[in-house]
Fold these 2 entries.
Entry 1:
Amino acid sequence: MLGSGRTVGLFVIGGGVLFACTGMVFTALTVRVSSNMASSWMVAGIILSLIIPYPIIRFGVRRFNRGRKILQELSTIKKQKKLLIMVKDQGQVNIHDAARALRVDSNEVKRLVYDLVGKQLFHGYINWDNSVLYSKHAVLLQGATHCPSCGAEQHFSGRGILQCHHCKAQVFL
């Protein structure tokens, strides 16, 4: 089903080209069999063989291009979803690490983040100087530098977890 717009487009283009070729061959054979037909009829037949399938081929090209665009959009959505999951799971993600995981460059990660912010899907904090993305929950807990259990210092330990240095209590983001 995925990419079916491209497949349909290719079939329509192929059908249009086949129609044009058949029309030209039929015109050429008709003129050859009936030698009394003028060459102007042959030219007219060839022109009609090209004009009639033109809208069909054009429709196929548009359908193919639309299918390609949809695939590109789906690829972007998958990358954005993966980025959001990474930030949510880890609490904070280095942009360069995210770029490696998504197999894109850092500028593409920034573009994805801005797109997510524009769609109001990314809630958190972005520190461009340090190249770090923080989840909404990490932002809320970032100010709370003390453990809720013993009051000691806590820090991010990865995968969306804050861990206390003293009692080893873990706060899940």
Entry 2:
Amino acid sequence: MARRTPDAVFVAPVQRLRLQYAKRGRLRFSSHRDFARAFERALRRAGVPMAYSAGFHPHPKISYIGAAPTGVASEAEYLEIALAERREPDAVAAALDAVLPPGLDIVRVVDVEQCPPGGLAEQIEASLWQLELAAEPGELAAAVARFLARSEVLVTRLTKDGSRQIDARAAVLELAVTPGLTGSAVSEPGPDSGHAIMTMVVRQVTPAIRPDDVLAALRLVAGFAPSLPARATRLAQGPVDEAGTVADPLRRTERSAGPSAPVRS
């Protein structure tokens, strides 16, 4: 019989940090598992003093929140880590950003003590998405109007357990169309009538409604099909108000002091 490996000595975390990171360029095609491997490797290379779980197979205490689908870019992905020693958040941000591959970029790091109370997952109520589409803005706007007029639009999603139907309409709080130019992950509105930008605010539900689900719904209710695959970017995640505005989940509270943490581009 194999000898039992003694349990690792558990050290209670002394600090928790919340990180905002981005998936840009070709790295939008990295899966959540790819990112997790790259991030844990970056933690070791950057010398971040992580707190570990106890037991036979200790692992760093990392909590990932609602990762974007593979193939989708994002400016607002979030996770939380627990440290065994205190560190300055800005120093951790710089150290990690220096060792992560370009395209997986640390935007900022904030001490949990400076964040709103409660868990990070509790702060993620909705996402703001931007989709760049090769389509006439008028055609897209007409399809959006038909979609918004419906109380329910069931689309089929293929899962590991087979096909299932989900309601792509109920979770959509805001949906708007503007003319735009393609060629960047985040395009500004422009005069090119052959391309359109669709922005939408989608409430966090289970299962999560993805940009592809909304496009499938537009095809179902209005026959809308862009000539090229859409390029989707998550611009924000966080609490949402009645007007459909998505707030910053790492915003500082009154219990914190000092200027806001700098945003790294």
